[in-house]
Amino acid sequence: MQYWKKLTAAEQDHRITHALEQNINYSQGFSLGVPASTLDDKVFYDKAPFLKDAPLLRTYVHNPNHIGCHTLGESEPFFRGTQEIEREVIELLSVDMLCAPEQHCDGYITAGGTEANMQAVWVYRNYFQQEFKESAESIAIIASEDTHYSLAKASNVFGVELFPVKVDVESRKLIIADVEKVIKNALKKGKRYFIVIANMATTMFGSVDDTSVYTSVLEKLSLPFKLHVDGAFGGFIYPVSEPGSNLTFANSQVSSITLDAHKMLQAPYGTGVFLIRKGLMPYVYTEEAQYVNGMDITLSGSRSGANAIAVWMILQTYGYYGWQEKIETLLKRTDWCCKALDERSIRYYRHPKMNIIAICAADIEKAVAEKYFLVPDTHHGSPNWYKIVVMDHVGMEQLKDFVSQLKSPISN
């Protein structure tokens, strides 16, 4: 590992303290033009003794604004200390987890996976418009029917039509014949450029897409495309559990990747990650943001620097091998639960390298599903699936208690 090292709490505290000292100090009285300040000390008491041992909370009180994309060079100088930590996070994730060469990617901490996916569509829409002098009407998004609804949002916001591809009901794999059918249908509707979304674990099933199913058809038809990987759920698991996958930057066709730190990484909400190969982010440069130092090319604009610190702290607390052990533990618990379902002839879908189990709704009593807060695939009408997500808090005791409530399938 080049960057992903395990640091002690004292080492982290020292690093964050130094970063905050490099940021603007509002109490010195020299900050007249920045529309920002620390958190209001009448509400958020900044002299509490416990803050000296809580670097993340100190960062929240300091309230750094990480507007912009700091991997590109110039940024607002007021928060350069904590911006550097965000740059470290982007480089660590790009290189040590997602197999990019050093200094090969740009990126930033987003509000979540939805923003990161929308950022990708925004970049690639503009790329095709600027490079090929085309309108949004000639661009298509293609993604599996299991893809996260954020792509439907992106389609609506950026005026790029979404074409869903069918998956096999049991394997949740892309149906190859339907990929070609969907692309040819898009061509008939005047689409000539394609934004491809490949899933590194879908939200409902944890299923994983094979990027070559898309790219082989697009290359055969000589169609321009950009490939984005949605790893909002699987991004902190799958590269560890399946290190040789084609869903990282080791695959030269992958242009960008979404991660979501407030899921598996258990960071505070509002901590997604957008990673993209260098040379592509400038396609969304907002010329109107003249008063912002550097290039404001993010959907979010102003955003909390504390979230970048939170992600950095979690990664440095575990180190790569500590994180690997955590993922292996969760997968073993998932294996155990699947074995118990097999013994009871309960049908389910589970990708062997993921910690999501989607149980056939017909094989589990609704009361049991509701008791354990299993999530249905729909809240409108009767669900077909209920999912279990084996997160860190889901221990063997809870899984055993759940399994003890299961009966023979209602129908089979």
UniProtKB/TrEMBL annotation:
Gene Ontology biological process terms, A to Z: carboxylic acid metabolic process
Record has Endoplasmic reticulum as a keyword: no
Pfam family, one: Pyridoxal_deC
Cofactor(s) this protein requires: pyridoxal 5'-phosphate
Database matches in InterPro entries: GrpII_AminoAcid_Decarb, PyrdxlP-dep_de-COase, PyrdxlP-dep_Trfase, PyrdxlP-dep_Trfase_major, PyrdxlP-dep_Trfase_small
Keywords, alphabetical: Aminotransferase, Lyase, Pyridoxal phosphate, Transferase
GO MF, any single term: carbon-carbon lyase activity
Signal peptide stretch: none
Modified residues (N6-(pyridoxal phosphate)lysine): K263
UniProt KW Transferase keyword: yes
The family this protein is said to belong to: Belongs to the group II decarboxylase family. Sphingosine-1-phosphate lyase subfamily.
Protein name (record): Aspartate aminotransferase family protein
Organism for this UniProt entry: Arachidicoccus soli
